[in-house]
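Morning!

As promised:
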Amino acid sequence: MIPHVPMVIGQAQFPTRPENVLSSWYVQHQETQPPNCFLARKVFFFQKSHPTMKLAELSSPAIDLLSRDIPVVVPIAAIEQHGQHLPVWTDSLLLGEITDRVERNLKEKILVTPLMWLGNSDHHLDFCGTLSASGRTYLDILNDLVENLIFHGFKRIVLLNGHGGNDVPAKQAIFEVRQRHRARKDLLLLMTTYWGLGTEPWKDDPTIEQRDMGHACEWETSMVLAIRPDLVVDHKNVPVVEPGNAFRTGYRAWTTKDRSSIGHIGWPHLASKEKGELLLNAFAVDVERWLARVVAWNGSSWDG
Ligand SMILES: [Zn+2]
């Protein structure tokens, strides 16, 4: 059955939010016929002709038609130095590629906001070209973003991270939002980093040496080689910069120059575009599986 949405001609077209009008398409994917309502039809045909659901490409009324149970994914990245051989756009480029791959598979099950390229990169500021929101500013920005989405009624909000410096403030931001809305039992506020979801790519390609993300390293250089080789400069001839062991398993605060005079950390000379494609695919599969759990969440339980 297609629910009927009353329209008011000459006034606001949706005096009340048509809850669940489109949820059968966007969440359950079972509808094949367009609905009766004019605006809902527009959204229906838009969705049919677009492979993904990008918030930036939808009109405000179309967004207002969406089920508020749809997970909203906010990709958060950075623009910062990546050594002498990779562009400052690296983190945004890679997270954007992974997000695109996930979107193509999950289609209308998720709503994706534009990637936020300004991240918390103060530790890289000694290197020219790095742009950064300081930790407290970044906390405020993420708080506001999540609050905006909650204000519009969305309940499942995911910060999908692609930069190490965003890890702590992103977790802190959603933690703070949760405290402000402590009476709500229907909110699902999540954060994850794409390389932290458990994939072990070296099991599929034993020539992959690294076991964790470095910086402008074997992994990142490989992935950029796979999608934008024109942006990689002479990576075979940059020296190895060992990650080291700074008081593990404790945490030592750092600036990049504490660890690397050249800017990268790891083994970029081992990179290849074949490794890059394997890594991109592995990370996209990981993110997709994890987001499928967010889609499947029952709306109230702690587990998911
Ligand atoms: Zn990076």
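The first helix runs from residue 23 to 28.

Hope this helps with the figure draft.
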